[in-house]
Every structure is written in structure tokens, then in C-alpha cells.
Design brief:
The modification 4-aspartylphosphate is found at residue 58. This protein is mainly α and 386 residues long. Among the domains are: 4-130, Response regulator (Rossmann fold); 298-386, Tetratricopeptide repeat domain (Serine Threonine Protein Phosphatase 5, Tetratricopeptide repeat), CATH 1.25.40.10. 68% of the residues lie in helices and 6% in strands. It has 20 helices and five strands. It has helices at 16-28, 40-49, 66-74, 95-103, 114-129, 133-146, 150-163, 169-180, 184-197, 202-215, 218-231, 236-248, 252-266, 270-282, 286-296, 302-318, 322-335, 340-352, 356-369, 374-385, and strands spanning 9-12, 34-37, 54-58, 84-88, 106-109. A five-stranded parallel β-sheet has the order 2-1-3-4-5, sandwiched between helices. Strand 4 (84-88), helix 4 (95-103) and strand 5 (106-109) form a beta-alpha-beta unit. Helix 11 (218-231) packs antiparallel against helix 12 (236-248) and helix 14 (270-282) runs antiparallel to helix 15 (286-296). The longest helix is centred in the last third of the chain and has 17 residues, at 302-318.
């Protein structure tokens, strides 16, 4: 068995004083091999760079919260079995705390003393050295699942369920396996079984949300997402998905409210902002998409701006907002007057509006520049024949 000083411990805590308290306590207990980070993104990077044995993670953190980070770890072939201790100041009887208990193997509530911390570490190290039958079965189930051996994974979770009938995790993972094999009804039933044991099991709610999105059962989808929002830390993905669901059920106010929260949580994460931009576009929220692009994306890259305005114009046409589409096309042509696609799309719009002379002028210009542009030639023939 490793000595205390040999265990590499990662602490993710954005509160400086709490972080220092934990570092001091761990050192006092003999765990000197430790490293600390300030947020979830830094923690995930450190996990991938370092050789971490035990991870203490604050629940409420910027960039990635504790539950989001836990999901990244559990979905990783390399780190899925890393001992993860959720550190939280949430009241033990609160809805948040029920959520934490449903999702994690270990948790410790602030404020805690060195004795509590030592008891937690002793428990983890015993589990590493001599796992229980249930822990062995769950480990095997997760391992086979991540390596796509679904039959062995299912068998392992069936064993785990028999060893510990009151545990929600075997039902959740059984549901996940059935979802992967396309047996949606069995997946749904197992997710509900997991929730009957742990009513705040976020991952089970997420599984149900995926099923109801596939079935286009929007009332149930929104109910799952709203329940998740009530019991989980603020999450970009949750706010974004709730906004999308609201937009799909003709609730523009709900969509805007949730997209606004998603924007706040995205901060300056370019990938998340791109997701939100697409959501605005798909929801037909043209003005919001244009504003987000102008504030977060528009720079000296005229080509990127032209492509975006062309997309906004086409979406505006689909929504019947032809005047707005025309403005976007013209704005794009100010940056790239000879752009083939934009000239053609504007000509097509003008043709639909029966402004044949203007449409013809744009088509003739683009055909001079691109003589082999077949679609432009065909549209020009239609106009001339009129």
C-alpha cells in the first residue's frame, strides 16, 4: 500500500482561504504531495497532465462546476475510477445536498475539521486497497461500458444491483446501456427506477430528457430540464437545452430567459458561445444572434462576417422577414462586393419580391465574374423570360 506522502491529491477550490485551509490540513495529516487549482477548467487540464490519485472538488466553481467536472471524469476511459470527493458548503438537508449524494461516491460538508478529512481519506484508501463486491461490480460495469462491451457491462450492473438493491447507480447505468442499444422503453423505465431511489439524480433526469427530446415529447422534456435546474448548480448546458426546448414549444419568453442565463454562464468560452449562437439562429432569434455575433465574434475577419450575415439573411427569409434579409445581404456585400453566394442569394430574394430589374443586375454582375455559375444563369433566364 502507498504511503500517505505518495498519494497525489488535487484540490479544486476557487475560495482562497478555504483552499489554504485544505492544503494545511492535508499537510498536517501527512499528505504533502498535493496541487491546487482555482476552477473546473484548470482542474480538468491538471487531471490530464498529472497523475492524480484523489480529487477534492468544490461544488460551486466558475468555468466548470463540480457536477459538470465529475461527468467529464466519469465519461473518460482513463480517469473514470478516480476517487472524487465533492466539497460543499450546502446545508445537509437541502435539495442541492440530495443531488450531491445521488451523484458522487464521497462528499464532505464545509466547514470540516482535520479529523473529518482524515476519516474521509481513510475510507477512500481502504476502498482503493480492498474494494467491496458492489464497488468491484460497478467498476467492471463502467469499464466495459466505456469500452463498448455492453453485454458484459449490463451483466456487471445486474450483479451490482443484486449486491446492493437500494442503490440507484445500477439502474441508471442499465438505462444508459439500453439507450445505447436503442431499447428506449427499457432505458426510460430504468431511469425512472433510479429516480425512485434518488429523487435528485441529475444524470437520470438528463437521460430522460434525451429520450423525451428524441420522442419530441416536449412537455416531459421541459419538466425534466426544469427539475434539473431546480436542484443542480447553474449550468450552461442545462440553460441552453431548456432555452432550446422552450423555443420548440412556442415559448419565446422562456427561451430568451434561458438563453440569457446561458450567455452569462458561457462567459468568454468560444465553444459555448458558438453553441448559443446556433441556438439563437435555429430558434429564429435573428436580432439576438446578430447582437451576440457583433459583441463576441466580429473582428477584422471580413470573410467570417460575410458568411454569418449570409446565414442570418437566409434564416430571415425562412421566417418571412424579407426586408431584414435584404439588409443583411447588402451589409455583407459592402465587405465583399463580388461574393458569389451573397450576390446570388440577394438576386433570388429580389426575384421572389418581383424586383426583376435589380435581381437581373446582381445576376449579370456575378455571371461576368463567374461565367460557369449554372444556378445564376438559370435564374437570369427566368427573369428575362418574364
Amino acid at each position: 500500500m502507498k504511503k500517505k506522502k505518495d498519494y497525489r491529491i488535487l484540490i479544486a477550490e476557487d475560495n482562497q482561504s478555504m483552499r489554504r485551509i485544505m492544503e494545511t490540513m492535508l499537510s498536517g495529516l501527512g499528505y504533502d504531495n498535493q496541487v491546487s487549482v482555482l476552477n473546473g477548467q484548470e482542474a480538468w487540464k491538471k487531471i490530464q497532465e498529472d497523475d492524480i490519485d484523489i480529487f477534492f472538488c468544490d461544488l460551486m466553481m466558475p468555468e466548470l462546476n463540480g457536477l459538470e467536472l465529475l461527468n467529464l471524469i466519469r465519461e473518460s476511459k482513463k480517469y473514470f475510477n478516480m476517487p472524487f470527493v465533492m466539497v460543499t458548503g450546502v446545508d445537509s438537508k437541502s435539495e442541492f445536498m440530495k443531488t450531491v449524494r445521488a451523484e458522487v461516491d464521497y462528499y464532505i460538508i464545509k466547514p470540516f475539521n482535520a479529523q473529518k478529512l482524515e476519516e474521509m481519506l481513510d475510507k477512500i484508501i481502504r476502498s482503493i486497497a480492498k474494494p467491496t463486491g458492489y464497488e468491484k461490480a460497478v467498476f467492471a460495469g463502467k469499464y466495459y461500458l466505456l469500452n463498448n462491451d455492453l453485454q458484459k457491462s449490463l451483466q456487471s450492473f445486474e450483479i451490482a444491483g443484486k449486491v446492493k438493491p437500494g442503490s440507484a447507480q445500477p439502474f441508471f447505468y442499465t438505462g444508459l446501456i439500453h439507450e445505447k442499444t436503442g431499447d428506449i422503453d427499457k432505458a426510460e423505465a430504468n431511469y425512472w427506477k433510479a429516480l425512485s431511489i434518488e429523487t435528485n439524480f441529475i444524470n437520470a433526469l438528463s437521460g430522460l430528457a434525451t429520450i423525451y427530446r428524441t420522442k419530441k415529447d416536449y412537455p416531459k422534456l421541459i419538466a425534466c430540464l426544469k427539475r434539473s435546474a431546480e436542484i443542480a448548480p447553474a449550468s450552461f448546458n442545462l440553460s441552453l437545452n431548456l432555452g432550446i426546448a422552450c423555443s420548440e414549444t412556442n415559448d419565446p419568453e422562456g427561451a430568451l430567459l434561458n438563453f440569457k442565463e446561458a450567455l452569462r454562464l458561457a462567459r468568454n468560452n468560444i465553444d459555448k458561445l458558438n453553441e448559443l449562437l446556433e441556438a439563437y439562429m435555429n430558434a429564429g432569434m435573428i436580432d439576438q444572434a446578430d447582437d451576440l455575433f457583433a459583441r463576441k465574434f466580429q473582428d477584422d475577419d471580413d470573410g467570417k462576417t460575410v458568411v454569418f450575415w449570409n446565414r442570418l439573411a437566409l434564416q430571415s427569409i425562412r421566417l418571412g422577414q424579407h426586408d431584414k434579409a435584404r439588409i443583411f445581404f447588402l451589409s455583407a456585400l459592402k465587405l465583399e462586393p463580388q461574393n458569389k453566394k451573397v450576390n446570388y442569394n440577394l438576386a433570388n430574394l429580389l426575384y421572389q419580391q418581383k424586383d426583376f430589374d435589380s435581381a437581373q443586375a446582381y445576376l449579370q454582375k456575378i455571371i461576368r465574374l463567374h461565367p460557369g455559375f449554372k444556378e445564376a444563369g438559370e435564374l437570369l433566364k427566368k427573369i428575362v423570360s418574364n
